[in-house]
Amino acid sequence: MSTTSKYEPVIGLEVHVQLLTRTKAFCSCSTEFGAPPNSNVCPVCLGLPGALPVLNRQVVEFAVLAAQALNCTVNETSIFARKNYFYPDLPKGYQISQYDKPLAEFGHIEIDTADGGKKRIGITRLHVEEDAGKSMHEGVNASDDRTSVDLNRSGVPLIEIVSEPDISTPDEAYEYLTRLKEIILYTGVSDCNMEEGSLRCDANVSIRPRGQKELGTKAEVKNVNSFRFIKQALEYEIKRHEEVIESGGKIVQETRLYNPSEGRTYPMRTKERAHDYRYFPEPDLLPLVVDQKWRDEIHARLPELPEARRARMMADYGLTEGDAHTLTLTKAMADAFESAAHKATNPKRLANIIQTELIGRLKAAGLELEDSPISMEGALLSADLTEAGTISSKMLKDLYDKCFERREDFPAVYEKEKPQQISDAGELEKIIDEVIAANPKQVEQYRAGKKTVIAFFVGGVMKATKGKANPALVNELLPKKLEG
Amino acid sequence: MNIERMTIETAREQVARKQTTATALAESFYKRIEAEDSRIGAYLALSRERAFAKASEIDRLVADGAPLPALAGVPVGIKDVLMTKDIVTTAGSKILKNFKAPYDCTAVARLERAGAVILGKLNCDEFAMGSSNENSGYHPVHNPHDLTRVPGGSSGGSAASVAAGMAVATLGSDTGGSIRQPAAFCGVVGLMPTYGRVSRYGLIAFASSLDHIGPFTHTVKDAAIMLGVIAGRDPLDSTSADVPVPDYVAEVGRPVKGMKIGVPDEYFAEGLDSEVRAAVEKSIDDLRAAGCEIVRITLPSTKYAIPTYYIVATAEASSNLARFDGVRYAYRAEGAATLSEMYRRSRDEGFGAEVKRRILLGTYALSAGYYDAYYLKAQRVRTLLAREFETAFAQVDAILTPTTPTPAFKLGEKTNNPLEMYLNDIFTVTADLVGIPGISVPCGKTRAGLPIGVQLLGKHFDEGTLFRVASAVEHAAS
């Protein structure tokens, strides 16, 4: 997208994140993904008459943890509200959400901008809500005119994170989502798996002439299922807005869907748009009170977040910013690196090997860190051996290749593959003869009775064989040769 | 065996002393239901299988000489808005015709655990919306004292069945007066406990912040026994309170000397039937004679109670009743071409007129642009009413009023005038809005023989005081 356009895009993002609780938000049904349809259900999440919601404490703790990680102010009292609308996968005819008193507000995330600087993106609010079920329009029954509803997901806890309209380009939107996901993953409250729907994103976008204060009319792009598609959808929308305005038209405030195969957005059908959700406080739940003590308890569980961790790792291990970035991409990676780094002769060497040798091979093999044939202990050994000059970088590469071929850890492969000992008596005798011939003075000393000189000859043989000589054999052969 | 006015105590004692068996007792009640209910129409469904299973369990306990629970063998009826496992539960609505509940309401489960024998499900106004039981989706209930008159509502079946001796005690629900008003019309005791005192789990919601489950009984003592069984914290209802359950029965018959009883001017104004006024004033005199100090008080915001109630209750109802959409359960219209048509026709054909009226009212009150003017303002009035009661209860131990402005009216008399029907709840709705407990006790009859009820209102979680004062009223009136 051209940066010289006379228009400036204004983008805000709404992200839904599924919390990794064992049970649902308001009942004790399992949240397990992929269970047979309608097997994880009960009167509460089926919306049976007379059933009542009871808030899951873990949901509150996870949501508060996420809010704290996103620099939000957690409200002492927040209120659940009913969002009323009819849809077959919404069993109660309303979704329990939060409206005018959300769990948390006024947060922010720092992102890197295209010019190498930093930018702070505000987070308007973070609130707790329940997911709806899933409508399946095809492939379930023999007849295609039926829709089936699976309510396993009904009542699964979500947090909705709404950004301020501080985002100015599709790249910044991509960066914001990447950072947000990274932070949420660090807190461990969600797996942010977009394929399974545990992270979903809607984008609001408008454009205005550069320098103008008032916002233009926005369009909302819904149900985009990858960060890349969000970026593409935003690029498409910005271009569309520019074209509409340039040709004298007006942007209609509407919800649009992105079709990734065509690379364009379409307006949703009118009927699906016009909603008056008739929010009102959920009378079946008490106001949610998270007092200072509880907030502090949760805060104590907040792990070191990526930004801070990068800075500390640079200082502690002498890493570059690039190293720190790569090694903190996931919390698992950073934890693994650090578990080995403090034992390494040179942590920077370990960092280099992980980045140049390990990560590339993992990617090529399509493996996650936890499935890596080479453990962090193994990487540590390889780094120390390289640092000591025992193995060359060429040997290191060969050994790593073998580890991946055989799916074996580094120490085991090294043990088998390390340079073989010379145990052939004839070959050794030849070398011993050469060493003896080169050092007549020491031979004389030996023969005069100074038996300790033998160590000098052992060292000489070892040096000549680059340490490959079988020491026992050398010790056996040497005295015979010296005594002539 | 005379079962017409059989109390819980008598029923339990007769079973315990082997003068009868729980099974025989249940049989006599079923016989009476067969004989009487065709005229009254209190029951919508009988649960013989479940009743006799429980009865024989109690009989085995008796035979084994095992300790007997508080309601051992006591035949009870359940308002049809309470979920009863494997028994048809319709909330008096066609939309839930033949709907078998897959689980038990907490209050019902607690009754049964205490040994009660559940005879069946009781008729009511559809989704508890009404003051005459004429809004039942099935058939009206007739007042046992005069079959041409209504039993009151919405718990008409629960009141009439006790009055007609077709159950020893019953459960009903009260959202704007639906326990106390029919209790007054049918000449029985009806208790609405404090909001949060009894779990709402399994009560088909009408208006969640106003719904209460409570008992109908012949006597104040029986009401105290029933509350003792059903009250207490339930982890399945977030709004149920973690407040200890005291010995309510111990309060029954305790002297009332020196207690201060408030009598609010606003409840004795124009429109109060003269015979009702006379009977209630007689109760005031009785209490004064028993040593109570009668204190004139004023509750000036009372006049806002009805409009406030009809905003809050309908708003919540419009949301609570959204789940009856024909998708998973409940009535689904046949042959709808689109989803929207399926929703519209299922709900149009399944719900009755009054339910639809309230859904419309409530939807309107919550709509964008009207929320602040209606719902939010109504909630502020609730706070105001609560403060007035707080002030009053700083001076008095309980408040005494008529339960209803008139005795039972004729069937059909008010069906064409919803507003006049709504005004029937004028003395009862305030307690629902404020969440305080209220009890209606019979205090006399009109010359024509229609029962009259007096209402006592108490502080939050102070049902004990209500039982104490109510038993004094009961004693003087009998």
Strand content of chain A: 15-25%
Largest interface: A-B, 29 and 45 residues
**Structural Rg of chain B:** 21 Å
Average per-residue pLDDT of chain B, rounded, comes to 97
Q: Would you count the extended β strands of chain A for me? A: 16
Shape of chain A: elongated
Distance between the termini of chain A: 85 Å
Question: How are the strands of the largest sheet of chain B arranged?
Answer: 1-3-2-4-6-5-10-11-9-7-8
Mean model confidence by pLDDT of chain A = 90
Account of the protein in words:
The complex is a heterodimer of chains A (484) and B (478). Chain A has 15 helices and 16 strands. With 484 residues, chain A is of the alpha+beta class. Chain A has three domains: 7-297, no CATH class; 306-417, no CATH class; 425-483, Arc Repressor Mutant, subunit A. In chain A, a hairpin with a 5-residue loop joins strand 6 and strand 7 (118-130). Chain A is elongated. Chain B is of the alpha/beta class and 478 residues long. Chain B has three domains: 8-251, Amidase signature (AS) enzymes (Alpha-Beta Complex); 260-301 and 384-477, D-Maltodextrin-Binding Protein, domain 2; 307-372, no CATH class. In chain B, 39% of the residues lie in helices and 13% in strands. Chain B contains 15 helices and eleven strands. Chain B has an eleven-stranded mixed β-sheet with strand order 1-3-2-4-6-5-10-11-9-7-8, sandwiched between helices. The longest helix of chain B has 24 residues, at 372-395. Chain B is globular, with a radius of gyration of 21 Å. Chain B starts with 7 loop residues before the first helix and ends with a helix. The model of chain B has no long low-confidence stretch (mean pLDDT 97). At the A-B interface, loops of A face helix 9 and helix 10 of B.
Label this structure with key terms.
heterodimer, A: 484 residues, alpha+beta, Arc Repressor Mutant, subunit A, 3 domains, three-stranded antiparallel sheet, 15 helices, elongated, B: 478 residues, alpha/beta, Amidase signature (AS) enzymes, D-Maltodextrin-Binding Protein, domain 2, eleven-stranded mixed sheet, 11 strands, globular
